[in-house]
Amino acid sequence: MDRALAFVGIGSNQGDPVSIVREAITCLDHIPDSEVTKYSPLYQSEPVSDIPQDDYVNAVAGIKTSLPPATLLLELQSIEDAFYRRRDPALKWAPRTLDLDIVLYGNQMIDDNHLTVPHREMANRLFVLQPLLDITGDINIPGLGSLQALIDRAPTIEMSKIDA
Asked: Do residues 62 and 5 make contact, with C-beta atoms less than 8 angstroms apart?
């Protein structure tokens, strides 16, 4: 079966976010028919929300997978659930123990009721774009163009690399 290279955005701002993001990367490597091939440094970033909350810890992981995108999404949600992720539709950008998003899945463009790839907010999220650049270089994002150009246009936020 063909394997796609998917990129997963990882974020946490509850509990011990640094440990949670690191544990999540380990969990990603245990998804069936998948393996983490690389992951970015961790970044601390201010929340993009009008809800008062702590800063986030973010990273991006590259995963070689033979799972179709919808199945990979279910695996990611299962990992989030294991970290006690709670979803409240009324609080879209609320604090969370763990957030895992498929940012890219090969060169596919997907837009259905369950999944949008490239991620719908990707171009506005420096905390996704910069870690992605760290592990891919300046790649072309399907439908959006150059990753570096996206970074240059992204809204500025307070963000700093976390020393490992």
From this structure: yes
